[in-house]
Structure formats: structure tokens, C-alpha cells
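Summary for the funding panel

The consortium committed to producing paired sequence-structure records for every protein in the target list. Below we show the first two records in order, beginning with the earlier of the two.
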Amino acid sequence: MIRNYFKIAWRNMKRAQSYTFINMAGLALGTLCCLYIIVYVNDQFNYDQHHPDAERIYRVTTLLTNSGREFNMATSSPPIGPALGKEFGEVMHYTRVVHIQKTGIPQTLVTYEDKSVYEKNAVLVDSTFFSLFHYPFAAGSAYKALDEPNTVVLDNALAGKLFGNEDPLGKVIQLDNLNGRQDLKVVGVITGNAGKSHLHAQLYIAMNSGGLGEFVRQNQTWAGNNFVSTYIKLHPQADAKQLERKLPAFLDKYGAGELRAMGMKKTLSLQPLISIHTDTSFDVEMAATVNPTFLYILMAIALLIQAVACINFMNLATAQAAQRGKEVGIRKVIGAGRKALIFQFMGESFLLVTISVLLALPLLGITLPYLNRLTQAVITADLFFQRKTWMVILAIVFGTAIVAGSYPALYLAAFNPVKVIKGNFTNRISAIQVRRMLVVSQFVLAIGLIVGIIVIRLQMNFIKDTELGFDQKQRLIFSFHTVEAKQNMQAFTEGILQLPEVMQASKTNNYPSQFIFNDRGVFLEGGTMAHSTNTQFMTTDEHFVEANGIALVSGRDFRQGDNGKVLINETLARQLNLAPETAPGARLYSQYEPNPAFSVEVAGVMKDFHYNSLHLAVRPFMLSYTDQAEDLSHLVVSLANDDYTTLLDKIASVWNKVLPNIPFDYAFMDQRIQEQYEKERTLATIINAFTSMTLFISCLGLFGLAAFSAEQRRKEIGIRKVLGASIAGIVGLLSRDFVKLVVIAITIASPVAWWAMNKWLDGFAYRIRIEWWMIAVAGLAAVVIALLTVSVQAIKAAVANPVDCLRNE
């Protein structure tokens, strides 16, 4: 019986080849998108789950309130980890991690013999690190790997660059960065297939190796110095929520006095390890995180694309009901029951869906590199060998077949056999209404996505065109990552200033768009730290304002020898209740126990500029002058033109003369600024691609329905042409009903899209407003696309010879 059903299904598919092709194409493309998105989202939610007992590992986070502002940080103060291990029996292990880049050291030069490479991901870790986290070792052992001082574990990629096929164990490498030079012995190499984690570096350096690590080990500051990532692993019977409730008393016991003196409030929380990658609520993260809302949106898009393909199947199946009516009637007359008929039509659905999915799998393999570029992900062909992937594929097959086939099966099985055999089959009003509703659903999704494309693109253009308060064009940034490089920074600066294309050069410890790791509370004379204003700051020389094109509102720029002077922005002046005109000459004070208080003098007030991304409002900010070259590690260079090709060759020549042993390192400031919006550009690209796919699948279905409608009305069209109807009139007649459905979809999609995109724009402190015309353009685009799709079949029917249509009448 089942074999017979499949034979009949195959014959029906061959008989209606055009509709079969439309269904298969839609289902295959929908499945491709749906499967990839599900795998991608699952990959994002599976970060850090490969660690043994991952559900018992937590990160200690900090909510710091200072000067009325809240800072939700993924980090904590250095002594918190050891104190937690000592104070609470629930804590089985603790470890601390310091991402060196987050302490103001952008890169580290790693050298072995004659090989040198720059690495950004270097971390200092306690010796307990490999007791909490699982990393497979290709060489060496995790057991007591970092107990000895001046030891390091390497990632296998870095080990390959430095050692090739040579055994790295016991070899000594040299690290050179702004903290100085350091020799480290290699005690292990970890493989790159440990599993995806927010905690992945090229170098894992023992904390007890002196320098910054020793500073962390000896540090007893409970209020400030929140730059350490602290992790704890609880005993199996421990309750994280109960432990978290004990943390306020714990913090009060050790740090109440210090926090009170500095006017700060601090709250510690325990964040589950497995939720870190999909939690965007914290600052100072070890690695980029992904917004779970974005992942849920992708999942919704995946399911809706598959739903669009299912809708095509349902529409075409019910539209062809007249052709299947007599078959159903005869089967019922010879004894087929309703259940048997439903089973038959569901079997046809399963067959079609299975073939479509089997077509989608090789397509996914072929398009995987493109899809990875689209999502900035690394999904490999290994996914086809994973049990979870095949479970997803089976779920898609069964889910799609049931959703797509259920309504047509129930609809066809309900036919009255006597009526359909006599030829009294009529396409019931309820079926027509369902088809219309399904078409509307398709275009609601498509129009919503088109609105998303428009809004995201306009917001990105707004970001690109917004006046930032400084000049980002024709600016080069040179970074000096080692002590030797910094010692020769002045000679390099003097060398390039001799070039006619170079207008100005300024030494600084930060530059706009770069993470600002320095901040402090400041107050006016007579105030206290309890009522201070938290202020971010950069340290620069006397040329920074000129080199970056920053405007002064009052006062003067820095001059050589201006130690103890600062430039403040308008926001800081406003929060200190200082009028910009009278602010120059005012003294700002600050004190962090047990250090003595110090003060600086305001030399001038700068016009507010966006040194952070436009996600954030401008905060209180100041520039602090120094003539100590060892405090500065970047050079911002303003150029007379953008003829970079020739100029970079000249600058490289100066670099190689002054710094022959250091790799040439430069960046364009405007590119660095745009890098702050990489997530938004990725989102725009993804929505562009999947919107195109949704529209294509929707148009496939619309094309099939239009073809069927034209076929059903062939004789009507012939009579109209004989009576004098024009081609334009017939095309309008056939297109009108479909355009009406798209207009209804516009009405439904508009408020939903407006709400959704406003929620997305809330992530920007500076944003566009959603105007009516944006939704109108999206609606018009949908109408035009639908009209073009339907018109192909309408014109074909309208130009047909009416004699052929009426020959049998």
C-alpha cells in the first residue's frame, strides 16, 4: 500500500512538473537557510559548554556606582578571587585572568630566535587556570602547567609560527611589550579544537612571573583596579544563588571603608560561564559577545523562511484541488476512507519535502563559505557528521512535511465523492480565503524585512555622515608596542615631520575609537570623592588637539611643559557646574586611598567630540598633558592629502631606518572608527541576504498561483478578448487580486516593523527617526515585485490567441 502511494505521488509530481519545481525550489532554498541559521545559532549558544562541570563555573562580575553613574563590568578587583576561595567552603577552585590588551597594551611582540610575530591575545592566569578550564594539550600537560614562575602555555597556531616542526617544550621565548621584555619557558601547547570559548588566547602566562602579574598578586584594592576577570568553580552540592546572597556581607567585611572613602557602591554577582558569550550587558569583556535578541531574530527569520516555503506548497496544493477531485471521488467510491486519503496526501508531502531537503544539503555544502562570510562565523563541513545536525534535519523534514501537507491533505480528503465525480467541483470560498491569508503572511514577513534593510542602512549612513567633533579623514595611527619602539618614537616623529605630506603628529596613550581604559573621579575644591564625577581621560602631548582637529570652546591648547594641566570637554564642565568661559584656571581634585590627593588645572574647554562609538552618549572626558614619552605609545598623524600609496612607502622607509627590528604597524583612523559598527554591518548583510531569499521564495509561490489562476481563466480571457478587451485590461484584471493582498500585507506589517526597528535603534545614543516614507518605500517595493511576478503570467495569458482558448466551446 505504501509503495503504491509513493508511485502515485511520483506520477503526480511528474504530471505537474512546473508546480513540483516551484515547490522543490522553494523548500530546498528555505531548508538551506533554515538549517544554516539553526546550526549557527546553536553554535553561538554552545560557547564554553565543553568544559567539564561548566554549569558549576561562574564569573564574578561587578556593578559599580560612582558619581551617580552605573558601570556593569565583567571584571573585578584583584583580591576578590583569593578572598572568595578562603572565605567560602562552597568554592572549590578560583582563578584570575588578566587580558593584557585590556590594560592598555595593544600587542605583544613574541620572539624565538630569528622569528618574531605580534600577538593581541595574551593573558596572565593563575596556576589554577587549567584546573577550572579544559584545554586539550598537544604537548605538555595541564597538571601543574603554570605552577613555576616565568612559564607560558601557547596556542598551537602560535607554536607553529614560532617553532614549525620543532618540539617547543622547554624552549625560551621572549615577550616584548610596553611593560618591558620578559623571557618565558614554554611548558605546554594546547590544540585549537578544544571547543568554542570566550576565553581563548595565544599565550597563557603564569601570573607569578613578575611585572603586572606580581602587581595583581600583591594588590589589595577592593574598590578600584577592576581589570581582573575572576572565575570560581563551586562544589557539586553548592547553590550559586545562596552564595550570591552572601556576597554583600563579604564585600562589606573587606572593602566597606575603602568604598565609602571613595564615594563608591559596589555589588558582586555570579554569572554562569555558559551564558557569557550571549550576554551583552557587561563592559570590559574578554572577547566579543553576541546579543541573544539578534540570535532569536535569526531563528525567527529561519522559521519564517521555512514557513514561506510551506505556504507555497499549501497554496499550490489547494489551488490544484480541481485536478485531484475526481481521483479523490473514485477512491472514496471504491472504499478508501478519509484516514487513508489523508495518509496518502501526507505521504506525497513527505516525499516532496525529503527530496527538497536532500537537494538542500549539497547546496549548503557549496554555499557554506559564503554563508560564513555573511555571518562572520566559522561553521565547517564537520556539521554534516554531527548527530545533532541530523536530528535538526529530521526535525525539519517531519515539521515541514506536517505543516505543509496537513491542510491540503485535510482539504482534499473532505471532498464529496458524488459531486466531484459529476464534475460539480467548486473551489470553495474557505480554501480561497486561506490561500489569500497565506499570501498575505508571506508578504508581511517580506515587507518587515525590507523595512529593516532600509532603517539599518539609513542608520549606518547616519553614523558615517555624523559630525564626530574631530577629523577622522586623512589620519594615520602608528602604534609602538615595545620599549625599544617607544624609545625611538621621537626620532620617528621627527623623521616623518620632514615629509611635506605630513601636517602634524601627536603622541598619545589612546586615540578616538580605541577602548579608553583610564578613568577617575574628579571634584572641585571643597568637594570629596563621595561626590566626584567619574571622568575618562587620555594622556597626550601638546599637539593632540591640532592633530585631530578638535575645537576649543574657551581657554587655550596645551603648550610644551604643561605638566599638571588638563583640557576638559563641555560635558564634564557642565556636570561640574562650570561655565565654559570661566572653567579655565579651575582646579580639579582626586584621591584614591591610600594614595595622597592630587590636583590638576583646567587649561581649556574642548567642544564635545565622540571619542566613543555613537552607541554611547558623550561622557565626561579630559585630556591630561605629559612630556614623559614612556607614558605614550601611539602617534596620530594628520596628512595634507589622501595619496597614501606613495606616502606610506616614504613613512615605511623612515620606520625601517629608525626601527629596523620592529614590524611596521599602522592603521587608518576612519577605518578604526567604522570597525566599532562591525556587528551592525553584519546584521545588515544578513538581513539583506535573507530578505532576498524570502522575496524569491514568495515570488516563486506567487508565480505558481498566477500561472494557475491564468490557466483556470483561459476561456474567460478568450471571451473578453473577442469582445474587445485590451491586453492592458486583461493584465490588470489578473494582477488586481494579488496586488490587493500585498496592500493588506503592508497594512499589517507597517506597525510591527516600526516597533521592531525602534527597539533596535534604542541601542544607539544617536539615531535616526523612523519616517513614514521608509515604510512606504518598503511597501511600494513589495507591490512592484509582486506586480512584476504576476505580470509575467498575466501577459502570457493576455497575448494568447483567443481561438485556442475557445476551440472546444
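The next record, for a separate protein in the list, is shown here:
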Amino acid sequence: MRKELEKSYNPDIEDRIYKNWEEKKYFHAKIDKDKKPYTIVMPPPNITGKLHMGHALNNSLQDCLIRAKRMQGYSALWIPGTDHAAIATEVKIVEAMAEEGLTKEELGRENFLERAWDWKRVYGGEIINQLKKLGCSCDWDRESFTMDDDLSRAVLHVFVKLYKKDYIYRGERLINWCPECKTSISDAEVDHKDINAKLYYLKYPIIGSDEFLTFATTRPETILGDTAIAVNPADERYLHLIGKKVRIPIIDREIPIIADEYVEKDFGSGVVKITPAHDPNDFEVGLRHKLPIINVINDDGTINENGGIYQGLERFAAREEILNDFKKQNLFVKIEDLNHSVGVHGRCGTVVEPLIRMQWFVKMEQMGKRALDAYLNKELKFVPEHYAKIYVNWLENIKDWCISRQLWWGHRIPAYYCEKCGHINVSESAPEFCEKCNHTGLKQDEDTLDTWFSSALWPFSTLGWPEKTPDYDYFFPTDVLVTAYDIIFFWVIRMVFSSLEQTDKLPFKDVLINGIVRDDKGQKMSKSKGNGIDPLDIIDKFGSDALRLTLMSGNAAGSDMRFSYEKLESDRAFLNKIWNATRFVMMNFDENEPKAGQLMAEDKWILSRVNSLAKKVTENIDSYELGLALQNVYEFIWGEYCDWYIEMVKPRLYNKDDTSRESALYTLKEVLIRALKLLHPFLPFITEEIFTTIQSDEETILLSKWPVFEESLNFSAEENEIEIIKAAIKSIRNIRAEMNVLPSKKSNIFIVSQNEYIRNVFEKGKLFLKTLAHGNDVIIQSDNTGIGDDAVSAIIQDGVIYLPFAELIDFEKEIARLEKEKDKLMKEVERVEKKLGNEGFVAKAPPALIQEEKEKAEKYKNMLLQADAQLNKIKRK
């Protein structure tokens, strides 16, 4: 018995469909030597909460690519997973513990880690369920987590390998420190925000004189760590002071006056205090001049024992105290307003403090060069290309990477310190004794690795590397990375240099950048603004397909998009349109499978159109124009299939004695199935429900064969005929609409053309003009014989359409319409003639293009003559 669709579309079908896909393992990619592999690794969401709209867009794009390639015959693998997100997750857990009155220290490391794993089981599981609700066709058998045993072994392997190669070292250097999270962070994790700040002018007494040296600073609290004061060697104002000393009054320390080109003569007073322990530029000056390094700030942002009487004060409170003390000693000069950039921790928003700390670093010069060369040699491509500038700029200015974090949640650094000789033993597993002195007293480093250290290995560690697994051999390298533009330097670069270093291969050949989903006003969504939208709320109400359609239609790579409920409602209407159109088609089926039989012109037209659509959409997807691909399918289904073809064949469907009825049914089904397949990567659920209902040859659209262009379905002659008829019908509809003619009012339609081909086209298409253009009779002739003077007209290519119903016409409006059309045609003629008169265009353009422009000119001139004639005719009445 033939299956039927429910009377109305309901997105509740999605859960049932996804469950069936999962149970039947349709997403599982097999190693098949007869197929080409196609691999995508999912940017792993952090286990810190729910997915947001950005995740919804990013994963919809990935799902679209993987579904299309799966249907095209690839062994398509999409590796899902989540990231332990060390800092972000630890902050969340600490916050939750605080509500219970607990601290990390009270709980202890082991108990804290138990809590962290519990957190992962809860929130990691929630994220996976959210991805499934979105329709993600991931291979869940290969789901990974950055701290899984296999992936952790890969992390340790890489650390040891890089250490032995002398690419990883431990040293005391200036790093970015977050006083809130109490950990070091990399340069990439520092957000720079412009703020309204103050520039404080203070002065130091010059030793051995009554003079003072005025300097400007935005951070008076770091005065406590000053070890020099600098001027520009070309600044004549201060040449006589170079080599002398000043006294820091509040701590009674003498420091030298040095000359360094780092100082800008025109900024502030042209004098800069140098604090090597708390400023990266000062640190470099300090190295050049061999200055002492005095750290005055504790891990929690308070002043340490080197701060004298200010010890224990929070850094910004100390600032105020120091300013007050300068005022008391008459050493305070003035304050200026200043807008400048301040580094804040991207995770918690705390102002970052540069500190001298003993940390672990990765040398980046050689690995960074390989990553840069990969792009410069055109082995790696960015879509859109302009995002490569971020990649190149970061690599050209790369610094050594601080990889140690003062956290408990994460991969613990595999370094073991000998309690006897102090030797550092680096090993993938805990050594039993020191490799240098054989002492058994070893203590592991307390720090963990930067989250990005492990996620940098994601494209290959998820496939079993460093073991030479079958998955790794077959599926690696991956094909494309789909990611947001804000983590190009966080993650993309790290994956590229890590993969080149560890596997000697690029991790992927293409990087597809998606933009940000903004609210309907163009603002970035955020909790603080209250404009965030939970994608699950949208899915619960509208379904995943509607959400995906709204996110992907019209979306261009790298461009931000606006999300609106108005568009969502419109997109849901498209789903209803497909559903209702399918129900209409199926209502006309009988128990027998319809045969092609003798195809009519309109059948060949729509078959030819869907055939061309397959080629166009495939090219769109291959070039990552996913929004354009979706738009092309959308317009075909709604416009050409539903609004034109179905309406054209209704008379054949309603007449069961019509010998062409079966070929119409065959075409309706064939074209719908092809269109559904092209739509499936974008809207997986509704296409699956309709596909499995309308046919029984294939059990799921997900594994069905992707439509390809077939020369046997290239009916260009019939396409041209139907397009001519469509243009005529549109012209008639436009005239009737402008004159507010009711659909019930019918009239005779005259087609006048001296072109025999045009007359033949309309002779075969009379029925369409009657049913779709409200015609009583259609009269086709070569001249105006029998057409009354009261007829209104529409100009078509090589002809004119006349509608003789003067009683419904407002002649003034008709004159205005024709004059408007005449003006439009004059502009077109002028534009084409100007183009053909351009010597540069004629010299460089291909002959075919020049000929095309000449034909346009001739066509517009003929249409202009016809418009002018019609206008003169009406004016004479």
C-alpha cells in the first residue's frame, strides 16, 4: 500500500528520523579502498555550557558538506567531539564549588578532578545531544574528547618529542598573567580593549641636583618595580642627564637615567619609566641595558614584599595610595585623559598583568616558518581569501608560545624534578628514578598544558595518531576545516604547524571561515545585552530544518549574518510549501508507478532545469558557496517547480483521459526527487520524510545517489520555448495587476509576431496562456488585423501581446506605463552602445561576448520601436 504524508508539516518528525539514522549507523564511515575519503573534524565545543547560534551555523555548514560528499559516493567521515577547555571549565567548576562553600585547596587535586570529570559527563553529554537535535550526521562511533586516553597519549608523545628536539624549554620570562584565574595565558588569549583611562604625570628627584625628571605613566603601581628611567638618545632636552640617577621617593631607590630609542620623544613628557618585570617593552629595554628585574605583584594581583609599605594592597588600590603619596611630597604634576588599549583575559575579562614567571615554552621560529610557507606556496587555502592576512600577520610576528598553565584540569606537564640533583626528567610515563643520578625521589610538575596544545593535534590525534592506525592511513589528511574567524590564530595556526611538525602533512587543504550570527539589529549576541537566542528554543518551536534554512540561506563565507524571527517564519513557509506540493503530487498517483512516456515541452523544460540545477549546486558546494547553493535550490523548488510546473500540468492531471497525464506524473515525481536530493544537505529531515514516502527504491535519502548533470536531459530547445511563454504570462499578469483586474475577468489574448518560430511556440502553449494568464481565447497572427484600437499591449521579444478589454483600462495609466518602459529601454540601448563604443572593452573582450552585446543592442532597439509605436497609437485615441 502506498505511503502518505501527514496532512500538515510538523517538525516533530525530526526526532524519529534522527533516531532511525543513528540506529542504522548511516553516519558511520567505513574504510573502503574503492571510494575516496572525505574528512572533516568538528571544532570541538567547550564543555562549559550550551551550544549557541554560532555553533548552530558552523555545524550546519559542516553537516551540509559531509552530507553532500556522502551522497556523491565518498566515504565521508565527520569526527565529532568536545574540548576540555581548561581555564573556562575550571572557572565554572570553582564557581559552582563556591556556592557550596568549597575551594580547590580544601578539596584537593584528586577530588577536584573527580568533579571535573563529572562536569564533563553532564555538560559534554548535553552538547552532544544538542548537536544531534541540529541534525549533525557525525560518526558518533568515533566521538572524541581532548582528554580521552588515546588523545592524552598523543599530547604526552608530542611534548616529549618536542622537548628532546629542544623545541620545548623551561625558562623565566615575561608572560601574561590573569590575577582572577591565577594562571598564565598566551598572547592569543588576551583581548585588547580601548578604554578611557588616565595618564599620570609624576616626577623623580635627580640625584645631586635640585632638578626633577617628569614622566608619564598609566600604571603608577608599577613604580614599585622601576629599575631605570629612559629618554630618547636624540632628545636634546635630556642629553645632559643621561648617565645620572633619580630617586624613587616612595621606596627610596636610586635608578639610572638611560637612553633608548624605544622612547617616543613626542609622547607625554618624552620620559619613560622602565619596569622590566611588568611590561613587555620594558622587559626588552631591560635586557638591552642589563637592568635588574623586580617583580612587585603577587599571583592574586596584590603587591608583594618588594612593594615596601604597599605590600598586601590590591594593585589598583595601591595605585591610589601611591598617587596620594606623590601628592604629599609635591611630586605629582597633572592628569590627562587618555584613550588607550588594555589587555584583558578573554575568558573572565580581568585586566591582564605582565609578570616574570618560570614557565614552559615552545620555540616557534622553525615551526611557524613551515606554517607560513604552506600558505605562501599555495598549499593551504582560506575561504574567503582575505582572512589569510590574519594568518600571515600572526606568523610573521610569532613569539615563543607559553604552554604551561597553573591549573589542575588539563594535561599535566610530563616533567619530573629530581629532589636530589634537580634534574628535569621528561617522559611520557612517570619514571621510577632520575635518569641523571638514579635517585628515586621525583616530583611531577604541578602545571598543566595550555588547552590549545592538545587541540592543535585534533585533526590527527582523533584518528589514532601517533599509532599508524587504519583510520589515520585512510582518512588523514582531512579536507576542510570549517571555523569562525575569531580563532584563526588560536587554533588554525597551531593545527597547521603541529601537523606539519608531527606528520609532515597539512591537516587540511582548505579553511572555510564562517561569520558571526548577529541579532536583527546587527548587534553581536551576548548575555549582557540580553539578545542571545538559544538554538534549542528555536528547534523546539520551529524545527531544525527551519533554523538551518534561516542560518544558511543567503549566507556568504566569512560574512556576518542577521537572525530574525521574520525570516524564520518565512523559511518555515517554504517547508510548508514543499510539503503541500508533495501531497498534491501524491494525491494524483495511483498504485502503478508512472512512466515517462511521451514527454511534453513543459516536462522537458523542468527536467532540463533540474538537470542544470544539479551542475550549478554541485559547483556551488565545491567552491564553498553554500548559501548560494541553497538559494538556487530554494528558488527552483518554490518558483519553477511549484509556481510554474505544477500549475502548467494541472489540466493534464485533472483530465484522466489525457494520454500525457502519466508523463506529467512521472516528471513531477522525478524532478521532485532530484530536487529533494539537492536540498537534503541543507534540510535533512523534511527531505528524508518526503523522499522515503514518495519512493521505495532507496531506503534513505542520506545514502542516495547525488544528482549529476546528464546530457540526455539537456532540452535547450524546450527550455527556450517555455521561458518565452513564461515571459509572456508574466507580462500579462503585470498588466492586469497594474490595472487591478480581478482574476475572474478573462479576455482574449492576441499574440502578434512576424517571427514564425515565436508564433509556433505560442501555438503549442495556448493552454498555458488560458489557464495561467486568464485568457478566453488565444489568437496568434503575424499582423494587427482584427485587433481593436482599445487593446492594451505588452512587448515581448519579436512580438507584441494585446489584451482587448478597453472597459477595464485606465488609458492614462497605460500611457504612463509605456513611457516608463520606453525610458527603461532607451537606457538599456544607451548602456549597450556605450559598452560597444569602449575601445578597451572591444579590444579585450572575447568575440562571443561582443556578439552577445550586439544582439542585446538590436533586441532593445526593436523593443523600443515597438514601445514607441504603441505609445503613439494610444495617444491618438
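Regarding this second record: The two ends are 65 Å apart (CA to CA). The chain has a mean pLDDT of 92.
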